[in-house]
Write a sequence for this structure.
């Protein structure tokens, strides 16, 4: 495993979260081209769309310092999925969303929950955000369960304008901060 020039952002018991790099294209393609993994997204991604996803990640790291990060096994260094913090606009308000996608072969091992809890803590302790959300397709029960395990509760159902679908808006507030709604 080579971690030279790798920007590690977070560590958990089983994982480190690092910025995606151009070397992750094949792994990303495995995840993003899988129809089951992408069933609640507009569509699975082809190679070109995978590269656009990666470009977006690299741009967002430069602009805001965060987006989806690679979730990597501490034991092997290999990526198992993505999890991170994404800017969203909900009903005209700027929000920070915890997003997660795990490669299908690793589902059901608590990976998304472990990574998402670390991202929640990063948003609260490092970024000092008063709350974080997750926007989830109502039928995506696995994702809704992850949100619950991260301590989130269902706050509202909204029309997600970017995708023109309804989405459940799960929220958890920062216990260290009592006011504000960013
Ligand atoms: C959602 C996703 C990230 C979960 O990853 P994961 O690592 O398997 O999640 P975890 O193991 O931490 O937790 C999954 C939970 O959902 C539950 N679950 C899984 N499928 C379920 C279903 N069909 N109905 C209800 N609960 C379900 C699991 O039992 C587990 O809960 P438990 O610990 O109480 O038993 C993964 O399925 C995925 O990548 N899906 C495709 C991308 C996606 O939809 N991302 C979310 C976009 S909002």
């Amino acid at each position: 495993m080579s971690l030279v020039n790798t920007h590690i952002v977070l560590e958990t018991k089983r994982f480190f979260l690092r910025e995606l790099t151009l070397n992750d294209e094949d792994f990303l393609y495995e995840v993003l081209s899988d129809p089951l993994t992408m069933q609640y997204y507009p569509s699975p991604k082809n190679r070109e769309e995978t590269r656009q996803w990666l470009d977006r990640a690299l741009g967002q790291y430069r602009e805001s310092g965060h987006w989806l990060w690679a979730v990597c096994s501490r034991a092997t260094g290999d990526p198992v999925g993505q999890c991170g913090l994404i800017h969203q606009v909900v009903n005209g308000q700027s929000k920070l969303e915890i997003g997660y996608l795990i490669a299908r072969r690793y589902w059901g091992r608590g990976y998304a929950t472990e990574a998402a809890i670390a991202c929640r803590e990063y948003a609260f302790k490092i970024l000092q955000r008063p709350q974080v959300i997750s926007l989830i397709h109502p039928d995506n029960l696995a994702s809704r369960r992850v949100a619950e395990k991260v301590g989130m509760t269902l706050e509202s159902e909204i029309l997600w304008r970017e995708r023109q679908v309804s989405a459940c808006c799960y929220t958890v507030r920062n216990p260290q901060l009592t006011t504000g709604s960013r």
Q: What stands out?
A: The longest helix spans residues 47-64.
